[in-house]
Amino acid sequence: MPVKHATASVYLFARIGGGWRLGMIEHPRLGGVLVPGGHVEADETPAEAAVRELREETGLTARFLAPPGCALPDGYPHRAVPPPWWTVEIPVRGDNHLAEPHVHVDHHYLAVADHPDRPVGPAEHPLHWVTAEELPGLETPLDVRVLGAELFGRIGALAERRR
């Protein structure tokens, strides 16, 4: 049974020039472009990792959109952890955390940068804002293209409904 590492990814959208764009970073080690994300550290939840990775990799903060679901009842005694939109298992060859093949249990979050032109800090990677039309031709994994295309069709309504 392979080792599993918790990771978090952020599908970051912004309204730029009258249309929606998806924020994608140039990844120096993996090549191509990816959505921001990375490993969950031992002292954080996947949601906290998503916020941290987004800020580190892009220099931006964003409004994270909550997925549909049931709220905890009033009086529940424990703090809720913001859930991801999806959690998937992604086989990987190896990375900077473990050289052997293993599995990333990736928590996918959806966020909107209301001020994509106002970074709050330096970005670790170049950030590109891509359109729905540009996405299919990018050098990026199939899962990112499929989910990105689906979200482009829904982001306007989701962003407005969850303000």
From TrEMBL:
Family from the record:
Belongs to the Nudix hydrolase family.
Protein name as it appears in the record: NUDIX domain-containing protein
PROSITE patterns membership: NUDIX, NUDIX_BOX
GO molecular function per UniProt: hydrolase activity
Span of domain Nudix hydrolase:
3-152
Please report the organism this UniProt entry assigns to the protein: Peterkaempfera bronchialis
Q: Which UniProt keywords apply?
A: Hydrolase
Where do transmembrane segments lie in this chain?
A: none
Coiled-coil ranges per the record? Answer: none
Top-level taxon of origin = Bacteria
